[in-house]
Structures are given as C-alpha cells and as structure tokens.
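batch job 7 of whatever, protein = Encoded protein
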Amino acid sequence: MLRRKLTTQFCTDINCFRPGTGVVLLAVASERNRSRLTRHACRYVGMLLAAVSYLVVMMFIRIKMPGYLS
C-alpha cells in the first residue's frame, strides 16, 4: 500500500515539474554565454517537454470534458 502511494505521488510530482522545466530550459537556451551544444540541447529538450506537457493537458481535458474540444 505504501509503495503504491509513493509511486503515485512520484508520478504526480513529475507531471507537475515537467512544464516548468521546459520553460526554464528554453530560458537557458537563450543565454549567449553557454556553449552552442548546451544551447541546442536545452532548446530541443525544452521544446520537447513543453510539447509533451501540452499534449498531457489536452488529454486531461478530453477525459474530464469529453465534448469540449470536438
């Protein structure tokens, strides 16, 4: 029981953490004092996390309000 609760809590924490991480990585990607490789990596990972977060929110809306987006 405790293990399931910890796993559920961990998944919830990760889902709340992901959108902010994408925005922070996009901000880091705009800094000029970083190496080119770091800026590109931050840019791509930030865009990926932002896109995944958007898709998760849209999936949540479709589950909670089935007729809303159609």
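notes: Confidence is low (pLDDT under 50) at residues 1-10.
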